[in-house]
Amino acid sequence: MIKVSETAKNKVISLLQEEGKSLENSYVRVSVASGGCSGLSYKMDIVEQAQEGDKEVVDQGVRILVDKKSLLYLIGTTLEYSGGLNGKGFAFNNPNASRTCGCGESFAV
Questions:
Q1: Range of the domain at 60
Q2: Distances (CA, A) of 59 to 38, 50, 98
Q3: In angstroms, rounded to a whole number, what is the distance separating the alpha carbons of residues 64 and 94?
Q4: Residue 99: predicted pLDDT
Q5: Helix, strand, coil percentages for the chain (3-state, nearest 5)
Q6: pTM of the model
């Protein structure tokens, strides 16, 4: 379903610790919304409970929630994190995307 790279896992843990939260009590909610320069954009939030209809995926101990609509676009995606000089932040390596924008925050299928 959705994978989490080791660097993304470490960054999620770090962010949760800054907020006084833990992997066991929190979820990473990943979704897709209309918008962005390529048509669809990624959203990511830290939440404490699932909503009705959410699909839960666990990889590397990170609990991910995805709504049914977004799941269709995200199957096979890997959540990555880069702390390099060319840009810092989370990125989605999505095999379903036919094109992405330059910043990697939006895509088209």
A1: 3-108
A2: 28, 17, 25
A3: 16
A4: 62
A5: 20, 45, 35
A6: 0.83
